[in-house]
Amino acid sequence: MKIKSECIPCLIDRAKFEADIIFETEEEKLKALVEIMRRISENLSENSVPAVLGTIRERILMELSGKKDPYKELKEIDIKAAKEILGVAKSFYEEKQSLEALLRIATTSNSMEYGVRGHEFNAAEFKQQFKTILNENLVGNLDKVEKAFSKYNKILYLLDNAGEAIFDVFIAEELKKLGKEVILSPKSEPIINDITASELREFAEGFEIIPSGPCIGVILEEVEEEFKKLLFNKEYLIFAKGMGHYETISEFHDKLKGRIIHVFRAKCESVSKEIGVKRGSLVVKLVV
């Protein structure tokens, strides 16, 4: 997905949000924001991909702060919150016993995101709203998604945020019970609040884990070679969580048509407009 005008203030808003978390003094915050704006402007064009610029932003913040994982504490809060409401998701699935129920859990859990312009997230409030969000309208092409799941037995599951990974592991376990072979793909290193391979291994027993790389979404120039082979292996259905994966993978959709499903809550205006849905929608869409 190419950058939209709305993406530019969003990139800056998130930089400010994170600078406030990471740095203590106004001098440190200003220095970081100036450097971020300088480096982003050097890489900015009409053909830029927002998630690539976001990756640049994150690396600058880590470099200047000396913190390898600035979101560590927030991720721990989200994982704790997710564990506390996982039972609601399990009960929802037990009642419905359908693929759609798993997809609803997957999209609802993608609400767990910080610093997105116009999208407010609070772990405590999310616990209260979770059941309501599960029953919101699901948009996309559910019929085609269900046919794709029937066609493929192997699934490459691209994970997103740390808290929602608790739900993703549950979903993957249920898919395995349905006879699917599931490979989980987190990040190889910390980047925003995405789950890393080392974090995932703490609660994802019995799964093959193959990291995608150290960046937001999938930047082909930076992905792990083993992951790249799986991504372009036509035997695998790709289940891609989150807007970062949509922003980056949409740049090479032509190579994955018919076997990649994007799953996310449309939290930002640019992505919502790109796919033609209302902001805040729960999206499950097979690229055809």
Distance N to C terminus: 16 Å
Helix share of residues? 40-55%
> CATH homologous superfamily of the largest domain, by name?
Uncharacterised protein PF01937, DUF89, domain 3
Weakly predicted, low-confidence segments: none
- Number of helical segments? 12
* SS strand fraction: 5-15%
Strand order of the largest sheet: 1-7-6-5-2-3-4
Radius of gyration: 18 Å
Write the layout of secondary structure elements.
Layout: H1 7-22, H2 26-43, H3 50-65, H4 72-96, H5 99-109, H6 123-134, E1 138-140, H7 142-151, E2 154-158, H8 162-177, E3 181-185, H9 197-200, E4 208-209, H10 225-231, E5 236-241, H11 243-249, E6 260-265, H12 269-275, E7 282-286
Parallel strand pairs: 1-7, 2-3, 2-5, 3-4, 5-6
Antiparallel strand pairs: 6-7
Helix pairs in contact: 1-2, 1-3, 2-3, 4-5, 4-6, 4-8, 5-8
Which short descriptors sum up this protein?
single chain, 288 residues, alpha/beta, Helicase, Ruva Protein, domain 3, Rossmann fold, 2 domains, seven-stranded mixed beta sheet
Describe this structure in words.
Helix 1 (7-22) packs parallel to helix 3 (50-65) and helix 4 (72-96) packs parallel to helix 8 (162-177). The model has no long low-confidence stretch (mean pLDDT 93). With 288 residues, this protein is α/β, with parallel strands linked by helices. Helix content is 52%, strand content 11%. A 7-stranded mixed sheet has the order 1-7-6-5-2-3-4, sandwiched between helices.
